[in-house]
Backbone:
């Protein structure tokens, strides 16, 4: 079974631009979560989707948004990029609702650099 | 609110030596606890999890962790380090409701010296 895939793997943007990151979960998984990983803050939860519904949202500004499609693929969007948005963005999928206490399978991440 | 503290951002051990990575948690309700490992340029992989069954949890690659409620700890151990264990390790906590997001510690980078 193919793992979680994320595209693109690397991205360079400039301040003020917007970006869309994509995540394809493991086949059959309906829950997708997004995390931001930075050296200073570590791993921080962004949001979780299950069956196209956002079930949980972390403490991030409204510039960060996401959605999930009927095939469980998910996208996250960051508008008006800031330098501090430079990070590794990780997507994780889980087969069941209540992703936080079930095993999550992580993708390799998208490395976003904001110049 | 829940939180996790990992003591030591970097731990270095010799090959064949005991690995001990420390994790202390804070939770107002019974926690579910996890250890994840991240190899360079990869996502995280689950090593083991505690879900209120046995307090000693065995995971993959010879790792195990013991849940100690009185000490609010969930330390990760491995009797004999291997070069391939060099990676970053994350402890995480959530609740059994499934509605509480995973809260991760800052991570501990493990180096294994030949």
Residues:
């Amino acid at each position: 079974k193919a793992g979680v895939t994320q595209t693109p793997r690397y991205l360079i943007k400039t301040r003020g631009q917007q970006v869309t990151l994509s995540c394809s979960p493991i086949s059959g998984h309906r829950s997708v979560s997004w995390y931001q990983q930075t050296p200073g803050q570590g791993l921080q939860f962004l949001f979780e989707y299950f069956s196209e519904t956002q079930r949980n949202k972390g403490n991030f500004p409204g510039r960060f948004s996401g959605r999930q499609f009927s095939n469980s693929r998910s996208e996250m969007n960051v508008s008006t990029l800031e330098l501090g948005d430079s990070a590794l963005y990780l997507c994780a999928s889980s087969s069941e609702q209540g992703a936080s206490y079930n095993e999550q399978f992580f993708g390799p991440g998208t490395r976003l650099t904001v110049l | 609110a829940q939180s996790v503290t990992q003591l030591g951002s970097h731990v270095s051990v010799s090959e064949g030596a005991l690995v001990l990575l420390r994790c202390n948690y804070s939770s107002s309700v019974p926690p579910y606890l996890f250890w994840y490992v991240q190899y360079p340029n990869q996502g995280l992989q689950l090593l083991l999890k505690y879900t209120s069954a046995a307090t000693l949890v065995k995971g993959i690659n010879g790792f195990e962790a013991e849940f100690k409620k009185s000490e609010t700890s969930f330390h990760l151990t491995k009797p004999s380090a291997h070069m391939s264990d060099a990676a970053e390790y994350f402890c995480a906590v959530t609740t059994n409701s499934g509605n509480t997001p995973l809260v991760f510690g800052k991570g501990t980078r493990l180096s294994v010296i030949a």
Notes: The first strand of chain A starts at residue 5 and ends at 7. Chain A has a mean pLDDT of 93.
